[in-house]
Amino acid sequence: MPRTAFLSTGFHVPSRLVTNDDLAQMMDTSDEWIVQRSGIKTRYWVDKGDTGVGLARVASEKAIAKAGLEAKDIDCIIYCTCTPDHFEPGNGVFLQRELGLTDIPAVDVRNQCSGFIYGLSIADAWIRVGQYKRILLVGAEVHSRGLDKTTRGRDTAVLFGDGAGAAVLGPISEDGRGVLSTHIFADGRYAEKLWVDGPGLAHDPFVSVSMLEQGVHRPVMEGREVFKFASTKMPESVAIALKSNRLSPTDVTLLVPHQANLRIIEMVQKAAGLRDDQVYINIQKYGNTTAASIPIALDEALAEGRLRTGDVLVLTAFGSGFTWGSAAIRW
Ligand code: COA
């Protein structure tokens, strides 16, 4: 049975750079507070006219071109986002249309910061059984329009950024290379610890002026709970990835963690027993781009020559749901 290889990656962020000082003009916060608590210095926000699918299209086109392919070679799209352009249908079909494709499946994955690893797990299963041969896996988010950019929402608003990352996945039969394992987890008991309550069909009416006045359409988070779980579950999932492949921390060339918070990443690194050079960090530039953060970081790591054929790459993520997971890949 073949394994799943990353044939290429690509990413795209919108052009509007937003600094911590820019945020301090909108709400009661400071560069010092944000850097100290999260490591984030800048993030990118969409401008008028931009959409999540628009960002995803550019990232996808870059990845497809880098693989030496054309859009028509893609036989399945898996689109991971928690910030869709519309309630219905999902972003997958809109991206399909933008790429000029018809008659292939477009799957939408709603697993927030863990979306890319969930999507990879699905893609890996399909590729190994031969169902699809060129899967476009996308993580893309537009957070900025949904954030509460007043002091009320400052604990959340300063953390998130917009962006898109994509990978083209296909079968590989070279000895030992490809996705070695994926492990995905969820615990819905914590669903409301980081969530957007509405608009939603659990409400009747599903949207109302009073809901909007209360701000239920903004993401809210119990930051400390999220921090506690993320810094436990991400290292746990890395340990599972290593154990199930009989690898030790010294075998890992690079860990690309979901870029949620520098302090969380540092705790993951310590708990996983990894050196600084084994962990890729770019949160300072982009903030938390949720499902896009791993493919953006992976594309940058590759551009910097951080992975060579045969190296061991580990991915880990944690996010709303709670959801979390890991993947081990022999590059
Ligand atoms: N600027 C300035 N002050 C802020 C602020 C901001 N952006 N956001 C919150 N504060 C204030 C709080 O109001 C509080 O003030 P008080 O002490 O007067 O009540 C103070 O800072 C400390 O708040 P607290 O929530 O205790 O801070 P914290 O140390 O827990 O850090 C987070 C807050 C959000 C940075 C931290 O909990 C975190 O990183 N959580 C994980 C978030 C995450 O990664 N989410 C995505 C996961 S995928």
Note down, in words, how this protein is organized.
This protein is of the alpha/beta class and 331 residues long. It has 2 domains: 3-172, Thiolase/Chalcone synthase (Peroxisomal Thiolase, Chain A, domain 1); 178-330, Thiolase/Chalcone synthase (Peroxisomal Thiolase, Chain A, domain 1, 3-Layer(aba) Sandwich). The chain has helices spanning 20-26, 31-38, 52-66, 91-98, 115-128, 154-157, 209-214, 223-244, 262-272, 283-286, 293-303, and strands at residues 3-12, 16-19, 42-45, 76-80, 106-109, 135-141, 163-172, 178-186, 194-195, 220-221, 254-257, 312-319, 323-330. The strands form 4 sheets. It has a 5-stranded mixed β-sheet with strand order 1-7-6-4-5, with helices on both faces. Strand 12 and strand 13 (323-330) form a beta hairpin. Helix 3 (52-66) crosses helix 4 and helix 8 (223-244) packs parallel to helix 9. The longest helix has 22 residues, at 223-244. Coenzyme A binds at residues 29, 33, 37-38, 113, 154-155, 158-159, 221, 223-224, 226-227, 230, 260-261, 264, 288, 318-319.
